[in-house]
Amino acid sequence: MALLEFQNVSKSYDNVTKALSDITFSIEKGEFVSIIGPSGAGKSTLLRCINRLVDASEGTIIFDGHDVRQAGKAEMRQMRAKIGMIFQHYNLVERLSVIENVLHGCLGKKSAISGMAGHYTEEEKKEAFRIIQEMGLSDQVYKRCDELSGGQKQRVGIARAIMQKPKMILCDEPIASLDPKASKVIMDQLKEINQTKGITCLVNLHQVDVAIKYSERIIGVSGGKIVYDGPAEHLTKEIIQQIYQSSANDLIMDLQR
Ligand SMILES: Nc1ncnc2c1ncn2[C@@H]1O[C@H](COP(=O)(O)OP(=O)(O)OP(=O)(O)O)[C@@H](O)[C@H]1O
Question: What residue spans define the domains of the chain?
Answer without folding.
Answer: 92-165
